[in-house]
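Internal QA ticket QA-208
Title: Verify multi-chain structure generation after dependency bump
Assignee: T.L.

Test input:
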Amino acid sequence: MRRPSPSQQLAETGISPQLAPSNAPACGADFMVDVMKSLKLKYMFANTASAFRGMQESIVNYANNKDPEFITCLHEEAATAMAHGYAKAANEPVMVGCHGTVGLQHATMAIYNAWCDRAPVILVGGNTLDAPSRVYGNQWNHSAQDPAALVRDFTKWDDQPVSLQHFAESMVRAYRIAMTPPMEPVLIIADAQLQEMELRDRSGLHIPKLSPIAPPQGDSGAVLEAATLLANAEHPVIIVDRAARTPTGMARVVAFAEALNAPVVDVGGRMNFPNQHHLYQGGGRNLIDNADVIIGLEVQNLYGTITIDSDNVQHSERRRLKPGAKLISMGVADLYIRSNYQDFERYTPVDVAVTGDCETTLPALTEAIKSKIPAGRRETIAARADTLRRAHAQNFERTRTAIAEGWDAVPISTQRVAAELYEIIKNEDWAMVSAGYGGNRTLWNFDKHYQYIGMRGGGGVGYGMSAAVGAAMAHKPHGRFCVNFQPDGDMMFSPGAIWTAAHHHVPLLTIMHNNRAYHTEVMHIQKMCNRWNRGIDRAGIGCAIADPNIDYAMMARSMGMHGEGPINDPKNVLPALKRAVATVKRGEPALVDIVSQPR
Amino acid sequence: MRLCRVLLACAALACAQAADAAPSATKGKEVYQRAGCYECHNYQGQGGVGPRLAPKPLPFEALKSYVRNANGNMPPYVPAVLSEKDLADIYAYLQAIPPGPSPESIPAIKNLKK
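Actual output:
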């Protein structure tokens, strides 16, 4: 019997056959998508790959490309960095799809960044384990016995399910493991045969329930010991890095600091503390020098924070802590640690180790402190606030007035760009989806948890634009205005993220920090030149990104994004920013290329 | 006549040497960039990763002492790499950098007040 043509079907039913989803899963990949839906995974960031063609077709047709939606990326490193940025902004994971071999190889640096940054990403790799079923040429190049071996040192868990039920249980387990602190990337290999098998009877399949995730809380004895030290401290100092994962977490850090009226030194791994709060002292590590009790909240490099070291002719280091000072650590780093990659930093002897999630443990610590403060000390503790309030105000004013120096400089000062942009967006519901720029982490008012997502994690270059796109996608449903300060060198590792932002209509303002070199590396080469007393004027060779100069605005326009620049005259910054902001407020991305000072 | 020519030549040489010896802000700007000072202190010495150097730089001897003996994250610059003349020229450049506009005259800065 001849099937009706698509036009006949449309005429009779009013439903285009291409758009009508199946009512029941027809293949293994459909069941896999059902598992993804059960976990409310909103996106799969991926560069299309034959190794997961079954899954992609199922997402597009069976799921009608929604929940999850397939986000087209031009490199797996970009896809992974987008998922990394998204996870930090939304506090929930999304998926990254890739070939189990070549795609995963591309993604590795970005996975490592997410690993070091303690960010949950669910990677789904395609693979064809059964050798005789590898049909076409490249399928052999794209298959491995153990694809996850490539990334096992910097993923928390991986599995290669051999049945659909196995896939369901492993995906749910993977989600749970990724989202239990310390949060980390996980990898599930979705075999091509499982994806593409016809599914006639799914009665034997079920999707297990995702059990509630309860982050580990610190030992009550350690909490009491820490509370006693802090309550009796004359000069306590709090150091924060990745202390707050959520708005609740940030409120708990504030309550904890206020219980002590202790200054907060911020290493900047996340949005931990409102920067205009009088206890916020930025990167003021000199406070550590005079402290008698210091507590680090999820500080990855606690050793480096309490040590002054110089990378100079003779490497030297000096511990900041004064004799007799007590050091407390709180965090989950010791709960899960791998050996090969050294992101665990140098061993730091502490007096009390509270091994537990900061957000979860802080309420108990705060209450313990309140109960431990002797009645006679309450006035002394209250009086600390005035001193810190004055210090905060002085630092703010000093930073504010200093940005006038170099205001009309060429190349353009980053401080001018940051100040002029803030003047335009300060009344918007804004979020910065990049590292800080031009002193803005002191001068802008960061008081909401979503306004800052931290940095790269592993220091891998090529994170910026992609992570910004991912984070902006998390902010999009909330109508937030997203800003990305984008280093030029970092952009060139993964410029295809520009296209993804344009294609998926991601409202995001990108300001190019176009300083035409890898300046950190120039300084490294300078140190070598100085060490051997030669060629100091040649330190830029191999580090400069000039001659020819890259036209980032043209690059953006070539991929369908609003692009302006390069801007060399500081007077042209404000009008360009206004035009770009207007574009972003209409729901589209924009890029402004500003030729700027090195820092 | 010959004596006059010799005297004139000597005077010209003395003038040239005196001109060479006087610190030059123009030369100093060139050395400042060639030596990579701008990497940390930015092009106008307004600071960045490193502290602000201008306007109103430290006294010359203090700046020179630090440059020669830096032991933090800044490498020391020995005379073989940065001569006494180079350092003097850099200092002349820093001294010549005028102060920026008043912060209160710039709306974007004025409106940043807490």
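Spot checks passed. The mean pLDDT of chain B is 87.
Status: verified.
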